[in-house]
Design goal:
Elements lengths: L4 E6 L4 E7 L1 E6 L2 E5 L6 E14 L2 E15 L2 E11 L5 H16 L7 H18 L3
Parallel strand pairs: 1-7
Antiparallel strand pairs: 1-2, 3-4, 3-5, 5-6, 6-7
Length: about 130
């Protein structure tokens, strides 16, 4: 059995990752999934959170927001609506976005749809959590 698998992470705008990794943990729609080489095939929906992977003994992090995933025994393909590497995220900007989205979620007078406001809070929290791991 192989000791690595190929990880591809792409958004509509760009490809972020294409490399051999030893493990991947990613946010599925209903919770996190851990993937090792030889994993059973799977198609699924991405959720909002931090994708973690290990390549060459180094752990790396990406903030992921929705999309699709495909897992094969030697390949993980992630097609995300939005994704950012931890080192690309401006922590102060992420904090301000979290504060703004929290205010929109608790204050109906701001006119933001509750489901959209909660999704914005989740995205902002994922970006901030990911950025703090770099």
């Amino acid at each position: 059995m192989a000791e690595t698998l190929e990880l591809e992470v792409a958004t509509p705008e760009r490809e972020l990752v294409r490399e051999q990794v030893s493990e991947v943990q990613l946010p599925g729609k209903n919770g996190y999934l851990g993937v090792l080489p030889g994993h059973a095939p799977l198609l699924g929906l991405l959720g909002i959170g931090t994708l973690t992977y290990v390549a060459g003994g180094t752990t790396r992090y990406l903030s992921i927001h929705d999309g699709f995933l495909e897992i094969l025994d030697d390949h993980v393909r992630v097609l995300a609506d939005c994704a950012e590497r931890a080192e690309e995220i401006d922590i102060e900007r992420a904090r301000r976005a979290l504060e703004r989205s929290q205010q929109e979620a608790i204050n109906p007078a701001l006119g933001v749809e509750p489901a959209q406001a909660m999704a914005a809070v989740m995205r902002a929290e994922a970006r901030l959590t990911t950025a703090q791991k770099k």
